[in-house]
């Protein structure tokens, strides 16, 4: 037969399955290129079971998973000589049809823009096996069956009943039907969701668009995809702009103990004057005190005893100046004024502006001296900000540079990390909400394919209900971008900092995994394809960028169970870990991604295994992933497992374009295991890179990126908005690399 590939680009792939029996010896390779060394052979009479076909280097290739779990290619036809090397059970080939004139200009338009009968009317002009990388959910209103292949004759492996919903990662046209691709405990399944003729949907799709081409015009080089993304519509904002006042008289939960070194009177109200409060009981020096809450009022810090008495423990001034944090094995006690061995450790004023400006020594954490010139600012969580001239210019420059450098398949991702939002701690932690809104402004106005927050959305050093209020405000700030978005899990997000350091390890103050799902993950689960085998409700999964050759892999380096009565070593706040389920999922996912498809990986934290490859290695010993603490070694091992899986995949396919993380609050990069690792600085002005020089009401208070991915060039380019350190030469910091 004659094979016409004049309109087919290199690495054109179709998602079809079948069996090919060879009539001669053909070599197996790690990529579809005849110049690549063979790793095995299929000989005459042997059969390969494939799940995709690829055109490249003048050949058709069958793409399959080997017995060792590695993706391989074997050529089965020479398109130059029109010669097939055996017989095939599936006649679909990876070819883009030419038009009637044979000029090499096809009639295929955009993929996935048609629905219903309109798409069915032209479906015969779309090749079987066409894959539309799309994600969403589909709720069935009639029964359907999952299969391992996109064939109606394939064995039924899973049943879907009326009312059940499947989360899918792609759509496929094949065998007279449209199919949804989905993950079933690490195995790829397909379920039909529509019959093409006579046309009928089997339910309701959250993301309509069928795997057929509209009949527009494309050239051989392809029409550039619109990397400005899809508007998700007016968001449902759920936060309150009324902040709960956590100042004087607010009671901070803290089930803890302390020892008096001086006599003190318990009172019926938190006032020192007997005109305002009655003295109820005199507690002598040396008394061991149990308390349930802390507060400050009337120039003093107080604890609330189990019987409701208020006991003064220090003047505010003494608590600011005499506080010392223990450095012994417990690490959860402090001393100040006439108190010792306070297992609640921190006092409310240490995490509250403006009191923390005056703190010294151990009492002063994560606040800069320059912040005393600013007041806490209420940022409206329901509105996008008005740009300053500098901000407008920077955004215009980034947008222009993106357009100039884009290839036809370019993808753009807005990325921020470590915002540590807290309405009350410092002027910077309150105002960083505006920085998130600035990124949303860019996404909505200039357009991006995806927005990613890299974790530590909130600071997690306030009572649980207060932190939850801040999480809602921060999530609304991201929703304002009106683009698909994902929020990774960091070590601060579950409020374990407050539970560990201010409440004597009180698990009730930790945001549980189920609560985190409701607060954060449920808002973006329609975009992030999270596997069902996920015992800790962790934030890991894939996002297939629509109409592109890019897969986003999201990892959760703090994938841990809930503990009702946690020890210090069980808090997420202090170490990294990946569950066995996440590790198994990653292995399966990497094996299922076509070798010609580009991958970018995001995690809050970097990986063990990178070692000394970091450009700035000053803080290597402080990294969670490098810790030598014995109780944390299972997490270090898991992190190293993730690194090994990614680097092994990269050595075979060279399609991981980058790994992005935050956590360290530093701009840093490393090339290790064949992968470019990049860490970005803190989105917050008073921590990490530039903490001494960044200022509020200046463009330097922000720090976020637009990541441009150019698949045809295997290129990544970063554009910085806001702060740039000494190593960078302009307000739109850009780093470029090619894999």
Automatic annotation (TrEMBL):
<feature type="domain" description="SH3b">
    <location>
        <begin position="133"/>
        <end position="198"/>
    </location>
</feature>
<feature type="domain" description="SH3b">
    <location>
        <begin position="11"/>
        <end position="83"/>
    </location>
</feature>
<protein>
    <recommendedName>
        <fullName>SH3b domain-containing protein</fullName>
    </recommendedName>
</protein>
<feature type="compositionally biased region" description="Polar residues">
    <location>
        <begin position="231"/>
        <end position="244"/>
    </location>
</feature>
<feature type="domain" description="SH3b">
    <location>
        <begin position="254"/>
        <end position="319"/>
    </location>
</feature>
<feature type="region of interest" description="Disordered">
    <location>
        <begin position="85"/>
        <end position="111"/>
    </location>
</feature>
<feature type="region of interest" description="Disordered">
    <location>
        <begin position="206"/>
        <end position="244"/>
    </location>
</feature>
<dbReference type="Pfam" id="PF00149">
    <property type="entry name" value="Metallophos"/>
</dbReference>
<dbReference type="InterPro" id="IPR051918">
    <property type="entry name" value="STPP_CPPED1"/>
</dbReference>
<dbReference type="GO" id="GO:0016787">
    <property type="term" value="F:hydrolase activity"/>
</dbReference>
<dbReference type="Pfam" id="PF08460">
    <property type="entry name" value="SH3_5"/>
</dbReference>
<dbReference type="InterPro" id="IPR029052">
    <property type="entry name" value="Metallo-depent_PP-like"/>
</dbReference>
<dbReference type="InterPro" id="IPR004843">
    <property type="entry name" value="Calcineurin-like_PHP"/>
</dbReference>
<dbReference type="InterPro" id="IPR003646">
    <property type="entry name" value="SH3-like_bac-type"/>
</dbReference>
